[in-house]
């Protein structure tokens, strides 16, 4: 009887160990602390959990007071996808901007500085970088989160990013394996399908992941995508052929395999989160990410019980669950050792500019990423307050709608009195009426993907040839306007760099 109880306790702890749940609030709820005491080894943080570096540091300390080796994970890519600065916009440009500069030392420096800030606040696992090759310009969910469309470029910057994060003790989680770049469907909403041959996958999608594995990335995140050439039946997250056969055996990855959010519709709508989690662990995943949408105790208990019951019924081998839990604990031990050495000390005061004291690497990178194209007429920098017209698409789930973007706030600092308006259709009459005699700055995001947006720009430039156009998404559309500025991302520092170019005050 004693042996049976001990075995049951071990099984339950292992089931809790492989979960990476989220929660609501800026302090840890009692239920979360209780489950950490029972074996939960990881916690995922989102924008809703963070208001300041001081608060975040207190939160991670609260978690570790319950268990000093708990993994604290976050989805902090910099650029468009930020949790540290969800209400302000990121102080670091994202992957597309870094890839456009193509200076691996700059990428490494940005990742290192971002990692320093995470480590200083007690975060030790970052669900980044995105190693997806953005070969499909119509991709609604990757886009500027990718370093670009060239596999070799993506590979070298992925390696630099991994090096930068892990050099300060923050584990990198390279995603979204085996590559989410060639899709026109967002896996938050439905199951994307990629129907290319194996040769294409090996020479395109897999190139950055091979490089990341060789560089020692501590974790890899799976994608909820169906790649028919690898597995025609199950998405990568649930596929033994992809997670065990390809990632473990062929690529030789020995670290932690983390799933993308299990409540995303690409898995949840077909399998449900409980069955999906069992299939994922059975396929070779080691950690179940959940909490972007479902972030309560019931979710944790449902997944724990689903895993335990799957072992008891023989659907999930007990040794597979034990192996997954052991990999989680091994990563926790690695991060704990780095914390013990005091890696990543940084002042909370640096958050306003997003860089360590005495450095402005984020802004430096954003300035270098600008591509400025002048129109046929000479451009005269603005010296009086303009009118900023933001043509606003629907934000994808990964980016979220709560993170501000654009350049109006940054222009207001340079040109007090700047006014702004947001527009979601191709009519420009309202823009012209609101602008009056002011010069117009039109701000767009992925204009090439939105016919209404390009129509609005064409009409606006025809009516007001001195209009400045700022593209803050993929730079795929033809330049237009008296000045066309491509920022290669919508981070706050990208907006600041663009505002400097508009006003002629750039460093």
Task: Please explain how this structure is put together.
The protein has a six-stranded parallel sheet with strand order 2-3-4-5-7-9. Residues 1-7 and 343-358 have low confidence and may be disordered. The N and C termini lie far apart (73 Å). With 507 residues, the chain is an alpha/beta fold. The protein is built from 17 helices and 16 strands. Helix content is 42%, strand content 12%.
Summary tags:
disordered N terminus; 507 residues; six-stranded mixed sheet; alpha/beta; 17 helices
What's a quick, concise take on this entry?
The chain is α/β, with parallel strands linked by helices and 507 residues long. Helices cover 42% and strands 12% of the residues. The chain contains 17 helices and 16 strands.
The description of the largest β-sheet is:
6 strands, parallel
Poorly predicted runs: 1-7, 343-358
Coarse structural class:
alpha/beta
CA-based shape? globular
Strand content: 5-15%
**End-to-end C-alpha gap:** 73 Å
Number of helices: 17
Helix content: 40-55%
Q: Return Rg in Å.
A: 23 Å
* Widest sheet: strand ordering: 2-3-4-5-7-9
Count of individual beta strands: 16
Global mean pLDDT: 90
